Backbone:
């Protein structure tokens, strides 16, 4: 059983749905459209990142100017492989009237801080048509990050020139990556912590590219692109019911297949091969607890619905390090994380159901991809 909803302090209530931004055209044009539509939110996210760097100087010994300098080292790798997504970042900077360096730094933040700011508590899971009441393929994701960025959440519905239309959640000035496309491919990402990080293509650029894949093999291949800086876990679901977790580091990977129709992943590696690449696994005990908890709840039913997955997203076992995280311990900047949104994607219906903020106290809103 899912635990009963609790009233927990530091929970923001949103009276409106997250904004939907519809964009189309060239990648630079789409970036400009996003930048113009969410100018204040993008500026706010840059201010939040700058403040977080300042607050953690004693730990990171990094200034914002230093972070900009470091992020520039990653840019040539991104430009060589995926110039179109660098163009998206340029367009976003132009539309929002902010320095391009600031947008690059946001999108390379994980790399330049060596993951110190990213002990995230995201949870992703999926079920295929064999495990749902209506035969649909469903995928769910809780996005955990600093509370200050919660207000910057929005949904993008995009029709890029030469690539499949897609719908994705993002916030501030980050490239979109958690979402699905018109080819029936869904991507959920969870931070993992490999020991072989290096200068290369930033993870957000890699995951943005996955959203443009036409086939499962293409999605997986993009997640494993050479010269990547590090890696995420990419939970990839396909409308056919195929489920995969692609566990990635800078130089290694493992492909996990959801043979029984269930797939769960949090913020630690599951495969034996990738566990050897994990940096400081003792810091990831709470991730293991969420993994076990979500997996247990998911396997209690073979007749899942959108609402049953939403119920799992509201679970509070092991609070504050629960699936629905309320950041009740705010004493240190690096611990100041919470669930800033939660979504269930109905890949069969091409719909996203998203709660802005903690899902236990905020309602879900539905968006449909019109390809």
Residues:
């Amino acid at each position: 059983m899912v635990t009963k909803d609790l009233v927990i302090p530091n929970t923001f209530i949103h009276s409106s749905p997250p904004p939907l931004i519809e964009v189309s055209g060239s990648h630079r044009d789409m970036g400009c459209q996003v930048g113009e539509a969410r100018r204040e939110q993008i500026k706010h996210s840059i201010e939040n990142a700058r403040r977080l760097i300042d607050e953690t100087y004693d730990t990171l010994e990094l200034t914002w100017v230093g972070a900009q300098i470091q992020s520039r080292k990653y840019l040539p790798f991104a430009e060589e492989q995926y110039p179109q997504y660098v163009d998206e970042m340029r367009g976003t900077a132009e539309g929002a009237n902010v320095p391009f360096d600031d947008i690059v730094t946001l999108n390379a933040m994980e790399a330049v801080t060596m993951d110190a700011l990213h002990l995230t508590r995201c949870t992703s899971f999926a079920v295929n048509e064999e495990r749902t009441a209506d035969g649909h393929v469903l995928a769910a994701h809780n996005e955990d990050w600093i509370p200050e960025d919660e207000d910057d959440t929005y949904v993008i519905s995009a029709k890029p020139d030469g690539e499949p239309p897609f719908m994705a959640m993002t916030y501030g000035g980050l490239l979109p990556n958690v979402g699905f496309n018109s080819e029936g491919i869904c991507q959920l990402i969870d931070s993992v912590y490999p020991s072989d990080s290096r200068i290369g293509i930033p993870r957000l650029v890699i995951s943005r590219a996955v959203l443009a894949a036409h086939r499962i093999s293409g999605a997986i291949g993009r997640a494993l692109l050479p010269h990547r800086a590090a890696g995420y876990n990419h939970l990839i679901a396909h409308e056919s019911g195929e489920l995969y977790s692609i566990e990635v580091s800078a130089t290694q990977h493992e492909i996990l297949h959801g043979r029984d129709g269930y797939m769960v992943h949090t913020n630690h590696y599951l495969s034996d091969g990738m566990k050897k690449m994990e940096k400081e696994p003792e810091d990831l005990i709470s991730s293991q607890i969420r993994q076990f908890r979500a997996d247990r709840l998911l396997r209690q039913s073979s007749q899942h619905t959108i609402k049953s997955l939403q119920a799992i997203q509201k679970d509070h076992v092991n609070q504050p390090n629960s699936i629905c995280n309320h950041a009740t311990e705010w004493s240190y900047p690096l611990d100041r994380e919470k669930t800033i949104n939660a979504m269930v994607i109905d890949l069969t219906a091409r719909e996203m159901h998203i709660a802005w903020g903690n899902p236990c106290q905020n309602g879900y809103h539905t968006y449909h991809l019109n390809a």
Notes: Residues 119-368 form a domain with the Penicillin V Acylase; Chain A fold (CATH 3.60.60.10). The two ends are 38 Å apart (CA to CA). The longest helix spans residues 39-55.
